[in-house]
Amino acid sequence: MCQCQQGHRHNDIFDELINLLTAKMEKIIEETTKILFKSLQQKTKKIEQTISSVENLINDDATSSSSFLDNDEDIQIVNNKNRNQPTTTTTKPTKTK
């Protein structure tokens, strides 16, 4: 067997090995990509649900606030503290023996 044929066999073996390793890497990349996309979809769904919940809370709050403000009554702030109110002093009763 000449050197040329032996080199050709080595090249064939290397090509087969490279093809096998390439196929294995492609399979690993595909599986990893599927896992990543599934995880991303789940996180996206959770974010969308959170956004929807917050929007519902905002809409509910806006609806209740607008119905509260839609009535014809005036809103007044009342200061309950009377400025001329006298101060009171509390004393302890004395004990008798």
Taken in chain order, the helices and strands follow as H
Report the count of strand segments: 0
Roughly what is the average pLDDT, rounded to an integer? Answer: 80
Poorly predicted runs of 5 or more residues: none
Distance between the termini: 129 Å
Helix proportion of residues, in percent? 55-70%
Strand content: under 5%
Radius of gyration: 41 Å
Helical run tally: 1
In quaternary terms, these chains amount to single chain
- Secondary-structure content class: mainly alpha
Major sheet summary line: none
Shape: elongated
In short:
With 97 residues, the chain is mainly α.
Task: Give a structural overview.
There is one protein chain. The chain is mostly helical. It has a domain of 37 residues. Helix content is 69%, strand content 0%. It contains 1 helix and no strands. It is elongated, with a radius of gyration of 41 Å. The N and C termini lie far apart (129 Å). The mean pLDDT is 80.
